[in-house]
């Protein structure tokens, strides 16, 4: 990690401590300690296991994308990819550092940078598609509750959906309307050229065109392998499903029974969309606000609500930062490239 990234990490941890302190300002220490003492730790282990499955499923997705070109790409190596992604997503605005971090980690294992870029892009488009699919299901189940109880959050949820939907539309345009997309990008970049030196503008155009070409070529290849595409979509769907279930198991750990798993899971999908709108790394502030507002009706005790929110953030955000640092420190294992004649898609 560079010095800049280390400073970003320290700032985010400090910001998290500040938000936690602010959230706890009206909570009596005695009540908080009692809530911690009465936690059912077995349910918390289930919640922790959900995060483990979240990382594990993404690692398997990486393996599936890589296996057509490389041998000896172990689960250990593949697991470094989502963990590095979590770390750099968590310390950069709009999670912009996750994609370069994935490419860097795969390149460390000996995967060609162009191939690694394609894998990261295809993983991203499948992830975005499953986010939108989960959102549509969650809207059917939980939006009426959101609109009636917390109508002021409805706009944020809608904006979050439009943001993710626009990303999907853009990626699909590249996949199925390639020439139009290239022309549209050239037109969109014209105003950018007004503010950049000719050399820098030309380099930017070249870089964007290369990424579009790489993504298009990889998407064409992948759409021919419908079995792998279906497997990756299912794995990503379940990856997100386990992530979305975490608040439910935290509530069970706090002794709340008779809670609808489907409703709680659906509301967590909506939190995910609200959080994506906040440019601050990790959605700091927005994530905490969304959680406490959406789940206040399920956890009437204020001290338990704040504790649930803190546990949720530790599992879904700070755990990823910690594991990401470990992943970046691990020594990468080298892969072996498969000769062209032996590749499955050349048969």
UniProtKB/TrEMBL annotation:
Topology class, membrane: Multi-pass membrane protein
Keyword entries, A-Z: Antibiotic resistance, Cell membrane, Lipid metabolism, Membrane, Transferase, Transmembrane, Transmembrane helix
Organism of origin: Lactiplantibacillus plajomi
EC class (word): transferase
InterPro entries according to UniProt: L-PG_synthase/AglD
Protein's recorded name: Phosphatidylglycerol lysyltransferase
Catalytic activity: L-lysyl-tRNA(Lys) + a 1,2-diacyl-sn-glycero-3-phospho-(1'-sn-glycerol) = a 1,2-diacyl-sn-glycero-3-phospho-1'-(3'-O-L-lysyl)-sn-glycerol + tRNA(Lys)
Pfam families recorded: LPG_synthase_TM
EC number: 2.3.2.3
Keyword Transmembrane: yes
